[in-house]
Design brief:
Belongs to the triosephosphate isomerase family. The protein is of the alpha/beta class. It has one domain: TIM Barrel (Alpha-Beta Barrel). It has 5 helices and 4 strands. It has helices at about 15-30, 45-55, 80-85, 95-100, 105-110, and strands at about 5-10, 35-40, 60, 90.
Length: about 110
C-alpha cells in the first residue's frame, strides 16, 4: 500500500481570530490533493475555533499536551481535551519544547503513553 503524502503547518504562538480566519479561508478555498494529508497545528486556545471553521478534509493538531488525563496542572492541556476540541493530532518532542522548556526524552515518552 502506498503511503500518503503528509503536509503539516505549525502556527506556533501566532495569530488572532481575525488573522486565523483569513488563513482558514485561504486553506478552505485551496485546491487540495485528496492523496495528501494536511494538518494544521493551532495554538491550544484556538483549537475549537479553528476546527469549527476549517474544512473537515484538513486535520487540526495541538502543539503540545501533558502526560495525564486530568488534574491540578495549571495551564496544561490533556489529550482528552484536545480530542474534545475536534483535534486528532498533537505535536510532541518539538525542539522548542526540549530546548526552551527543558523537556526530556523521558517526559516526552510519558506523554506518548
Amino acid at each position: 500500500m502506498a503511503r500518503r503524502f503528509f503536509v503539516g503547518g505549525n502556527w506556533k504562538m501566532n495569530g488572532t481570530k481575525e488573522s486565523l480566519e483569513e488563513l482558514i479561508t485561504t486553506l478552505n478555498t485551496a485546491d487540495l490533493d485528496d492523496q495528501t494529508e494536511v494538518v494544521c497545528a493551532a495554538p491550544s486556545i484556538y483549537l475549537d475555533f479553528v476546527r469549527s471553521l476549517l474544512d473537515p478534509r484538513i486535520m487540526v493538531a495541538a502543539q503540545n499536551c501533558y502526560k495525564v488525563a486530568k488534574g491540578a496542572f495549571t495551564g496544561e492541556i490533556s489529550p482528552a481535551m484536545i480530542q474534545d476540541c475536534g483535534a486528532d493530532w498533537v505535536i510532541l518532542g518539538h525542539s522548542e519544547r526540549r530546548h526552551v522548556f527543558g523537556e526530556s526524552d523521558e517526559l516526552i515518552g510519558q506523554k506518548c503513553s
